[in-house]
Amino acid sequence: MTFPTEPVPIPDVVIEIAAGRPVVAVWVNELGGVTFSVDGGREYVKVYPAVSAHLLAAEVPRLRWATRFTPVPAVLAHGPGWLHTARLEGRSAVDPRWADDPRTAARAIGTGLRHLHEALPVDQCPFGTPSWVPVDAPQADRLVVCHGDACAPNTLMTDDGMFSGHVDVGDLGVADRWADLAIATLSLDWNFPSEGPGGFQELLLEAYGVAADTERIAYYRRAWDEEDPLTG
């Protein structure tokens, strides 16, 4: 996901939901999906093209289940190709606020994933494995309910640098914790370029409370590259 750099047309459904309140496009992705802020960020509406509308449909039950245990947006309404949610405290870990402080962002992402993995009960999870995780994956180091798309933008942070929640949980499911950690550490290189080897990976894993498992990291990164998790 990236911040929009050009004007984005506002779909009719967003105009209807906004009911005269201000609307701003705040995120776009490679699938043509757009997230709109309504009323200064009090609410959000995600709109996806028909070919990927199933991704939003998958997110609705996951949000409703996960919100019982961990901070994720509350579902206000949804329909074919759109999802209307309430504001969740914080801003994305890749917000310009953190551009000059990637160390704080990396720690918050690690802390947030640890919270997610400890809060969501595996034995109560009604969802399967994230779509991109191979069915023949190695025996788990620790089986958890994974975010499924643990890239840096999907962690929210308060302005004092603390983890405050997660968004975009449409691929949430049960898997080895390294399915999340491998992608979270990888995404640091995309969003916070570093001159040193490994970038800020060590800080993220330290905040999570685990040493790098190089074999599992390599395995799950290969799996991520081989199957696009956004298209399922």
Short overview:
This protein is α+β, with helices and mostly antiparallel strands. It contains six helices and ten strands.
Describe the structure.
The chain has about 230 residues and is α+β, with helices and mostly antiparallel strands. The protein has two domains: about 80 residues, Phosphorylase Kinase, domain 1 (2-Layer Sandwich); about 140 residues, Alpha-Beta Complex (Aminoglycoside 3'-phosphotransferase, Chain: A, domain 2), CATH 3.90.1200.10. Helix content is about 30%, strand content about 20%. It contains six helices and ten strands. Strands 1-2-3-5-4 form a five-stranded antiparallel sheet, sandwiched between helices. Strands 6-8-9 form a three-stranded antiparallel sheet, with helices on one face. A two-stranded antiparallel sheet has the order 7-10. Strand 1 and strand 2 form a beta hairpin. Helix 4 packs antiparallel against helix 5 and helix 4 packs across helix 6. The radius of gyration is 17 Å and the shape is globular. It starts with 11 loop residues before the first helix and ends in a 6-residue tail after the last helix. The mean pLDDT is about 95.
List the helices and strands and how they pair.
Blueprint: H1 12-18, E1 23-28, E2 34-38, E3 43-47, H2 53-66, E4 75-79, E5 82-86, E6 91-92, H3 102-119, E7 143-146, E8 155-157, E9 163-166, E10 173-176, H4 177-191, H5 201-208, H6 214-226
Antiparallel strand pairs: 1-2, 2-3, 3-5, 4-5, 6-8, 7-10, 8-9
Helix pairs in contact: 3-4, 3-5, 4-5, 4-6
